[in-house]
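CATEGORY: protein folding

GOAL: derive structure tokens
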Amino acid sequence: MAKQRVLCLVGDFVEDYEIMVPFQMLTMVGHEPIAVCPGKQAGDSVRTAIHDFEGDQTYSEKPGHNFTLNGTFDEISPESFDALLIPGGRAPEYLRLNERVLEIVRHFAEADKPIAAICHGPQILTAAGVLNGKTCQAYPAVQPEVTAGGAEYVQPSEGFDNAHVSGNLVTAAAWPAHPAWIREFLRVMGTPVSVE
């Protein structure tokens, strides 16, 4: 299996599990995830938030870990990456306002490289204009943006534990989907995945 470089777009208050777990899983299988944030350099950190489902009308939010970046946003070249990962949390709502972020996302979409987005991550895909004609899962509160962006919204399972694949795009509604979401992302990347 060839080692692949995966660009991870993050910002302050990215969802803790949605960057920590995929970053570790991609590293575990031999790939090289590089996490970057606009305005920050390798060695800087972003603050994370833990979103949980505790029976309220929406998720709760608690402070998470500090996550250390291993790449510098201003120095990355999207052409040198094989795949893109966009975690959720609150970061996507403001990252989508950064034109360079949108240009990077468009590169991956136009080159038909694998893209994984979860939870509020599809907000960035919508802002980049790359969802038209796709089917996409996201956190339910993001459904209006997904459909406004020209995609068909795919309802997640009741436990948010499933993922959806549309061509090179792998999406899920929230971190309970990690096993399915990462498995499908690896498959789209061409990484062998064994499921008993």
Residues 170 and 185 are 6 Å apart (CA to CA). The longest helix spans residues 16-28.
